[in-house]
Amino acid sequence: MNAKPHIAVVGAGIVGICSAYFLNKSGFQVTLIDKNDPGTITSYGHASTFADYACVPVNSPDLIKEIPSMLFRSDSPLTVDFFYAIKNLDWAFKFIKNCTTKQVNYISGALGNLLNSASVSYDEIFSEVDVSKYIKNEEALYLYQNKYEFLKAKTSNKIREKNGVKIKILSKNEILDLEPNLASIFYNGQLFIGSRHTNNPAAISKKIFETFVNNGGRFLKNNIADIKSKENLVTLIYGNNEHNFDKVIICAGSWSNILTKKIGDDFPLDTERGYHVMFNNYDLINRPVGWSQSGFYLTQLEEGLRAAGTVEIAGLNKPENKKRTKMIESEARKLLPQLKEVKSTWLGFRPTLPDSLPVIGPSKKYKNIIYGFGHHHIGWTLGAVTGKIINSICNDRVPNINIEPFSPSRFN
Ligand SMILES: Cc1cc2nc3c(=O)[nH]c(=O)nc-3n(C[C@H](O)[C@H](O)[C@H](O)COP(=O)(O)OP(=O)(O)OC[C@H]3O[C@@H](n4cnc5c(N)ncnc54)[C@H](O)[C@@H]3O)c2cc1C
Q1: DSSP-derived pairing of the beta strands 29-34 and 188-192
Q2: Ligand 1 neighbour 201 (Cβ under 6 A)
């Protein structure tokens, strides 16, 4: 009898954990490898929303007009390290090329298609992995600071609705009925109907990971130093030794391109850095509350109230920028004046391609190396559906979602 094909999954963020889970379930021998503990990097510190509604990319015709004023505002959702940007102008040009109305519609359609299968894919995992105490069904609320921002959002809302997202506009008073602790500093807002969130992303990752291990999956804590393809095998170098696998999946988030370059696949992968500030509060809000003014969500977690979001373009190596966490803290306090002391702050690295679409599929050069990275603002939401697609590819089945827009060959 032939041995089961041996697949290595590199990167144990939510995308790698879900991929390993589905591959193991469908009968492969699976080794998940990460230099850190599973689920402890970007997939730990995010805003914790299952954002099935978030099909509109950051790219937009309006953004180009607004960037100059955003860069000079101290409470802006976006900040750019000038020297880093100058060194990476090629990425910026590619990003701008994807800001036309036509491209934004294309990207939203592709993301919307993926997002429409996000919840059902998680539910397939959750039918075996009991995480019910960590899933909350109070729908996410998004607040607009003024009438202008609300009217401007109509374009994005139209795109969302076209992609099946259900939105309910609420007046200020209706919002205060739902969330009475909010300070009345906003104009109005909207609910994303049917959306859910978690109060403990780390616990969900851990539970899925533990089920994978209990079902026979293997985890190795190691840094992948190199990757080579030889004949029908893929060789990973870790612990100073070569290890052969039938297939390798690369789900290393923002660090994926360091590995793909080693086999000659170079992607325009950059990072949108984001922050969270954790407050020592436990009962101020019932649902995630997004704040358009500064681009973050307030979410009540088991470990405290988390304000998470904003975008900083400054690469992978610069340390935490305290100005950003101070800004998030002061804006959060304006919305919720009852906030107590800060417990901790965190910097995370969203893996982002300039067209705001992930890379999902086999390497053009080596069909037994498969990619799953670049999920930018919605990687937590897309973990399970990406894992399912990767499992279909490894089983030589055509995924039931059109994955052409996510093709690794699209940048050639
Ligand atoms: C502030 C903020 C708020 C966000 N809010 C949301 C939200 O509300 N909803 C949502 O859906 N998404 C959100 N996101 C996005 C989401 O967090 C990410 O898209 C997602 O976590 C990416 O998951 P990943 O598995 O691709 O990467 P990661 O979680 O970063 O995992 C990659 C793993 O690869 C490992 N690795 C890298 N290189 C190597 C190597 N050479 N050898 C071994 N291991 C390696 C790393 O150690 C890491 O564990 C947010 C992000 C931020 C920063």
Answers
A1: unpaired
A2: no
With a CB cutoff of 8 Å and minimum separation 6, the contacts of 30 are: 6, 7, 8, 9, 20, 23, 24, 212, 217, 218
Ligand 1 center–CA 270 separation, angstroms = 13
Q: Are 298 and 332 in contact (CB under 8 A)?
A: yes
Ligand 1 pocket mutation pick from 31, 36, 43, 262 by most atoms within 8 angstroms of CB: 43
Whether 324 lines ligand 1, by a CB cut-off of 6 Å, is: no
- How many Å lie between the centroid of ligand 1 and the Cα of residue 379? 7
Work out the number of other CB atoms within 10 angstroms of the CB of residue 6: 18
Ligand 1 touching residue 356 (CB < 6 A): no
pTM over 0.85: yes
Q: Which of 5, 48, 14 is nearest to 346 (CA)?
A: 48
**Poorest-pLDDT segment among 65-74, 134-143, 195-204:** 65-74
Domain count, the chain: 2
Q: Where does the pLDDT of residue 70 fall: very low under 50, low under 70, confident under 90, or very high at 90 and above? A: confident
Is there a single domain that holds both residue 249 and residue 310? Answer: no
pLDDT for res 2: 61
Q: Is residue 26 part of a domain?
A: yes
Indicate whether 213 and 334 sit together in one domain.
Answer: no
Residue 371 lies in a domain: yes
Which domain does 384 fall in, by range?
6-43+203-268+356-411
Mean pLDDT calculated for residue range 214-221: 98
Q: Which of 352, 376, 391 represents a domain boundary (last residue)?
A: 352
CATH code for the domain in which residue 307 is found: 3.30.9.10
Q: Quote the mean pLDDT of the chain.
A: 96
**Is the pLDDT reported for residue 216 higher than 60?**
yes
Please check whether residues 375 and 226 belong to one and the same domain: yes
**Is 212 found in the same domain as 63?**
no
* Closest approach atom of ligand 1 to CA 376: 19
Name the residue of 36, 41, 114 whose CB sits within 8 Å of the most ligand 1 atoms, as the mutation to test its pocket: 41
268-294 burial, b at 16+ Cβ within 10 Å, e below that, comes to bbbbbbbbbbbbebeebbebbbbbbbb
Query: In this structure, are 88 and 38 located in the same domain?
Result: no
Token pair 């809302």 is found at 157
**Would you place residue 200 in the very low, low, confident or very high pLDDT band (cuts 50, 70, 90)?**
very high
The atom number, within ligand 1, closest to the CA of 288 reads 8
If asked whether residues 177 and 225 sit together in one domain, one would say: no
